[in-house]
Structures are given as structure tokens and as C-alpha cells.
Amino acid sequence: MSNKCIAYTADGKICGKNALWPDPQRGGMVCTEHRPRLASTMLFNVNYRYTREELNQLFQASYNLDVEKGSTYDGRGMIINFWTEPWTAEARGESRLIGCIYVDWSQDTICLIRSESGFNLDDVLKELGNLELKAFGRKVHGK
Q1: How far, in Å, CA of 94 to CA of 85, rounded?
Q2: Coil/strand/helix, residue 6
Q3: Sheet harboring 109-115: ordered strands across?
């Protein structure tokens, strides 16, 4: 897992400063200067252990059931975003981010959960549970 900022600078180069903040829109970590400005979001530090195979299955399911393919998941390497609606032509503007999970691949864990404004931890855990059912047929940490 890289600890360098993946954001682009004004001159089009990758920043490269030390990264401390998860950024689901960019799909990685960013420095303080480029961190997302979040209103009313909540971060929850967790230690949800999985096997490597289970994590791979979660991400594969999120790729197969992508928000742009008619579902509500958006996997991005170390992050899975959960959306309210698929990104169809009609609904894309109405789709809201419920929250996301952040994976620490070196520990085979979900290490952080973020719920967006208007949603809570239970909302994200319900989405995680739905994805777990689709990925490997049972709930492990999701509701």
C-alpha cells in the first residue's frame, strides 16, 4: 500500500507527498492538501478480518456488480463504494454515496468504514452484508 499522495497538482503531475487521508473518489490515499472536504461524514476505525480469498471475492463481486453495470457497488483497489442507485442515464444524478469500506491488504482487514451525510454505520454495514452474500454466500461482518 503506497503512502504517497495520488492526487494531481495544478500542473498535471502526481503530488507524491506523504498521504494520510483516504479518498474514495480518487481510489487511494492523498495528502492533507488534497484531502476530500467532507461535510457530516463519519469515519469508523474497525478491524474486520477476512481471508485473502474472501477479500478477493468481495472485490471481484464489486467489479462484476459495478454501479455502471446496473448495480450499486464501485470497487477501486483498496476501497469499495456503496451507492443508492445504479448509474443509469436516468438515475446517475440521483444516486448518492452511502459510504465505503477501506481495506488494508497487508493485514487482510477492512480497517475503516465511512458513512456519508444522511447515512450511518448501519447503512454501510447492511450494504457490506449484501455484498458478502453475493460474494461468498454468507454474512461475515455485514448486517
Answers
A1: 7
A2: coil
A3: 42-49, 109-115, 97-104, 79-83, 73-75
pLDDT for the residue 108: 97
CA dihedral 13, 111, 113, 34 (to 10 degrees): -20
pLDDT value at position 19? 84
pTM (2 d.p.): 0.71
- CA-wise closest residue to 87 among 75, 78, 95: 95
Please list, in sequence order, all residues whose beta carbon lies within 8 angstroms of the beta carbon of residue 126, skipping any fewer than 6 positions away: 142, 143
**Termini Cα distance of the chain:** 28
User: Mean pLDDT across the stretch 37-60?
Assistant: 90
